[in-house]
Amino acid sequence: MKPAGAVQPFLPYGRQVIEEDDLAAVREALLSPYLTTGPMVERFEAALVDVTQARHAVVCANGTAALHLAARAIKLDRGQVAVVPSITFVATANAVRYCGAEVVFADVDPETGLMTPQTLRDALRRAQGARAALPVHLNGQCCDMEGIAAVAREWGLWVIEDACHAIGGTEAGRPVGACSHSDLACFSFHPVKTIAMGEGGAVTTNDDALAAALRADRNHGLVRQPEGFTLPGAVDAEGAPNPWFYELPEPGFNYRAPDILCALGLSQVKKLARFVAQRRRLMELYAEGLAPLAPVVRPLAHAPTGDPAWHLCVVKIDFAKAGLDRAALMRRLAEAGIGSQVHYIPVHRQPYYANRYPGTDLPGADAYYESCLSLPLFAAMTEDDVTRVTAALTAALAG
After folding, report:
1. Fold of the CATH domain 20-272
2. Does residue 270 carry a catalytic annotation?
3. Which listed residue (193, 270, 271, 316) is catalytic?
4. Are 153 and 124 in contact (CB under 8 A)?
5. Which string of DSSP letters, residue by residue, matches 284-324?
6. Largest CB tally within 10 Å, which of 55, 143, 157, 196?
7. 39 preceded by cis ω (within 30°)?
8. CATH topology of domain 273-398
9. Where are the beta strands (DSSP E) in 35-148?
10. How far is CA 46 from the centre of its chain?
11. pLDDT, tens digit, for every residue of 28-70?
């Protein structure tokens, strides 16, 4: 118990957990010969392969870079279309536009915010030249990837999983990122995610050619493997590759992740199971604590296809029944030291996309957005913290 009158710290909706071993790992990297690309990159990639059970993991600068690299790896281009759910961060759709391709937005299940096989199929009927689907594993819950893959096969689509919320979870018994029903999966290691690099991302795949494309593209597009050389001067008189040589078949990007951040990522991924277990326990406590507020406040519906690694604690609130709008509730919570957020404004409503694709009507996405609110969730939270949040929410709703 805190002493009477003690000021309680502000609880944000999400926050990294940095411990002494993380500090030691970064210090070791800082004192090594490498600050940018070095041995920590490959070590972190190997750890991600262990976690996801994919054949390859390619670390990059952030989750947005991961999505962009994945889209480029399948050669998404002008005149083509990718289907993206409207409930996601804007980066999912933006990665498609970076390639010059067009977006067709899919609706979502209003209870989970997830794209479903049916909403993908509905979006494809509105699409011309569809080449890819980008299902988003929202809040830590997974889409029905087997069902989505079946639709994708019918339409001849590449499948890129936006798994930025979901590392450490499972889908149909396999780790998220195993790419059992997709071509590539993308991750983010932003500070509010389950494990943090500061900024960082990764793409997993089981396809050797896609992995090679990802690795070249994150490093300006440069090729250093002799089998890819075409210029004279690539090899010496004995036919061995010259040690300085590289070629540029086409421009790529500087999406590399430095050794310092990969050292932090490697330290964090070793604790992934503990972080995931704590987040699941906190969500159980939230379910118990919020039960008296039903039906005005309801926990997010559980997707049936996997075991989530919760990234966000989203609740659904009937603001009309509460007699309070969302902004007023968030202000009352903030006054009580409780952070909250909304994930997300439907991307098809954002000005750029609304102007580019006018008339898009996605009632499921709109319904999800109108009632969602994210409450604090991070691995350093305690049972008392959850009690504090639920008490503050109860008081805020009561006025």
Report:
1. Aspartate Aminotransferase; domain 2 (3.40.640)
2. no
3. 193
4. no
5. HHHHHHHGGGTTTEEEPPPPTTEE---S-EEEEE-HHHHTS
6. 143
7. no
8. Aspartate Aminotransferase, domain 1 (3.90.1150)
9. 56-60, 81-85, 102-106, 130-133
10. 20
11. 999 999 989 999 999 999 999 999 999 999 999 999 999 999 9
